[in-house]
Design a protein that fits this description.
This protein has about 350 residues and is mainly alpha-helical. The chain has 15 helices and four strands. It has one domain. A two-stranded antiparallel ribbon has the order 1-2. The chain has a two-stranded antiparallel ribbon with strand order 3-4. Strand 3 and strand 4 form a beta hairpin.
């Protein structure tokens, strides 16, 4: 109950931020960080709750961005064998929802294929998938415009009583939109994690052999996680396309996946708040350092902070905070500061030893 109250307090505080601090630059930075946080939440479902490291997660982000953009712009492409595919421009919200569905389908296909293997083989498959998607976006010029990029992507809209249809182009409107999608993604993952399916996923993460022996279907639950994770990443990509309003094949770059992994691990994988905390720190840090130190020093500080977190908080920031709060409430010292417990034999007095 306390966690639910704290969650809604944070949501209300974040929702009031554009009113309290209406700085367009900071709202823009927070909006961009929020999109990456949504993508990190999607990766955390795979990495944190099923134990599967996907290093090609940027592929789902890019698929969502391109699908939503292409459906809103419309396209006419020749598929070969005399087949011509013509798609008229769709309303932006329909395109956005279709992007989530299409990305989920890709997640299902990749999950059915990739989850038949484990370890390094799974990682290689996900990286290869992202690279293939990038090459398709780069070379299928008739559809994606290739390196010339898709431009003039319409923004998302909302209907408001008395105002009609409003284009969400202002910094505050974009911020609220990203916040709303982020809250929905967070609640979706939370409801899944606390369900029977989520408990099965955690069991697979802890001991897959034991979970299989008690009848948990491994591939089925991992595929469910892949579909939902891909759909959320596609939603983040769709938000990116309609807020930036220009996309190119660079959205498939490996650096986006690395950024998601950093946010998840530093915040605390396997925790709901981990990607949010890690995303806020590593999403805002480059902007806070801009103008203060040189770009080269920014990356050094960025990497140094990541190393320090992994050394002193190996499980992440959120688990470390939970542990410290538990120690404070119990009034006990942390394990590393406690006096070593004496073995029973060390408490026997010398005369008792002689008697024995």
């Amino acid at each position: 109950m306390q966690r639910h109250t704290l969650f809604f307090v944070w949501v209300i505080a974040l929702a009031l931020l554009p009113i309290i601090w209406p700085d367009p630059y900071m709202l823009s930075v927070l909006g961009a960080a929020g999109i990456m946080i949504i993508a990190a939440i999607s990766l955390n479902l795979l990495l944190g709750f099923t134990g599967q490291l996907s290093l090609g997660h940027a592929a789902f982000f890019g698929i969502g961005a391109y699908t939503s953009a292409l459906l809103t712009l419309g396209f006419d492409v020749h598929l070969g064998f005399g087949i011509q595919l013509v798609v008229e421009p769709k309303p932006v919200w329909i395109a956005f929802l279709m992007a989530i569905v299409v990305t989920g389908i890709f997640g299902w296909g990749l999950g059915r294929l990739a989850f038949r293997v484990r370890g390094a083989y799974f990682v290689v498959i996900t990286i290869s998938f992202a690279q293939v998607m990038r090459m398709v976006a780069l070379n299928w010029v008739d559809l994606t415009e290739g390196p010339m990029a898709l431009i003039s992507i319409p923004p998302l809209t909302i209907w408001w009583p008395g105002e009609g249809t409003i284009r969400l182009v202002s910094k505050s409107a974009t911020y609220w939109l990203v916040l709303a999608v982020g809250v929905v993604a967070y609640l979706l993952v939370a409801s899944l994690v606390y369900s029977r399916i989520g408990r099965a996923m955690i069991a697979l993460r802890e001991n897959e052999t034991l979970a299989t022996s008690v009848g948990i279907p491994v591939t089925r639950y991992l595929t469910i996680a892949a579909v939902i994770s891909a759909g959320i990443a596609g939603a983040a990509g769709g938000l990116y396309a309609h807020t930036v309003r220009i996309i190119d094949p660079e959205v498939f770059l490996f650096i986006y996946t690395v950024t998601m992994v950093i946010m998840v691990i530093s915040g605390g994988k396997g925790t709901l708040a981990g990607p949010v905390v890690g995303g806020l720190i590593f999403g805002l840090l480059p902007e806070l350092l801009r103008g203060v130190v040189e770009p080269e020093v920014q990356w050094i500080l960025y990497g140094a902070l990541m190393v320090l977190i992994l050394i002193f908080m190996p499980k992440g920031i959120v688990p470390a905070l939970y542990s410290w709060l538990a120690w404070i409430r119990s009034g006990r010292l942390p394990p590393e500061k406690r006096a070593p417990e004496k073995h029973h034999s060390e408490t026997i007095r010398p005369e008792e030893r002689r008697t024995a």
